[in-house]
Amino acid sequence: MRIAHVLNHTERLNGHVHAAVDLACAQAALGHEVSVVSRGGSFDALLKANGVETIQIDQRRRPLVALTAAVELTKLMRRFDIAHAHMMTSALLCYPACKIAGVPLVTTVHNAFERSSIAMAVGTRVIAVSAAVARLMKERGVPASRLRVVLNGTIGSRRHADLSEPPIALGSPSILSVGGLHPRKGIPDLLKAFEIVNATIHGARLHIVGEGPYGAQYRSIAAAMPCASSITFHGPQEDPRPWFKGADVFVFPSHAEPAGLVLSEACEAGCAIVASNVDGIPEMLDDGRAGILVPPKNPALLAKALIELLTTPNALAEGKKHALANRYRMSLDRVVRETLDVYNECLPAYVPGAVKV
């Protein structure tokens, strides 16, 4: 199959890009002819090393740039059997190009909490990264007949090929957070919760990996807390898995989260998990069997869950075991297989129940 993944860029900035890169590399490994169309970025070398063609088309939201991109995409799409858009601008630019070329367009909705995500409804099929995202898109008017759910999963990603890297020494008891430093991720809630935990559990430490526009503000908040010496901001890390391996508990206190990729990385490392019971997080954690779910925006209950996990005999070991068991649901192989099924639905020769391409 000739597949074109279309996105704004290939920089190491967000889950949209990571998911698209994972998918492209894995599809190429299966023998498909795969191209990534973007303005380029830091993942281009990895894509080329995995047999994925990179095609540079600037898709920024500037009138002349967008018009040029639309023309170039229209010429390009005739080369492919399927186009797969992962960002809103790319989807809107691909839609007329695919119509003219007669190529089905598949879109993936990553951030349904953004109202503008309705733009992804232009797809022949619209992939939601969790059932929660699918429900929201259906409420916004996307027909169920065009919606398909492919739950996120990263285990087996070519982005992290080396599994032998040793754990980061974080000590014990250690609590880890990995993600962007902005309000949606709930870092202020985590800081408040950790203040309670630190006052209860001697030696508890909080490690925060990631960066974002609110990084300076969150560091300032932490510096003014009584437990400031027990909180460390480590900045962004290219591969978070050694951090998961070195931590006792991974905390994911998001206020909104379609299906965070870091949850599958935490499961792969066998790190016990406490996360917000919101959006796609329960699905990623097998409805709470692979991690403890707490209400979002509630530092007191988050602290209570962490204290119980860290002080109840065998609770931490059980939490790690259940997270590790969930890794089979989080495989990239499953994501690729289910995505190819969606592609096949869009092709003229598709027969339900037949052997897939």
Order of helices and strands: EHEHEHEHEEHEEHEHEHEHEHEHHH
Widest sheet, order of strands: 3-2-1-4-5-6-7
Radius of gyration: 21 Å
CATH class call of the largest domain: Alpha Beta
The CATH homology group name of the largest domain: Glycogen Phosphorylase B
Q: Which structural category fits the helices and strands?
A: alpha/beta
Distance between the termini: 7 Å
Q: Percent helix among the residues? A: 25-40%
CATH architecture of the largest domain: 3-Layer(aba) Sandwich
Explain this structure.
By secondary structure, the protein is of the alpha/beta class. The protein folds into 2 domains: 168 residues, Glycogen Phosphorylase B (Rossmann fold, 3-Layer(aba) Sandwich); 166 residues, Rossmann fold (3-Layer(aba) Sandwich), CATH 3.40.50. It is built from 13 helices and 13 strands. The strands form 2 sheets. A 7-stranded parallel beta sheet has the order 3-2-1-4-5-6-7, with helices on both faces. A 6-stranded parallel beta sheet has the order 10-9-8-11-12-13, with helices on both faces. Helix 1 links the parallel strand 1 and strand 2. Helix 6 packs across helix 11 and helix 9 packs across helix 12.
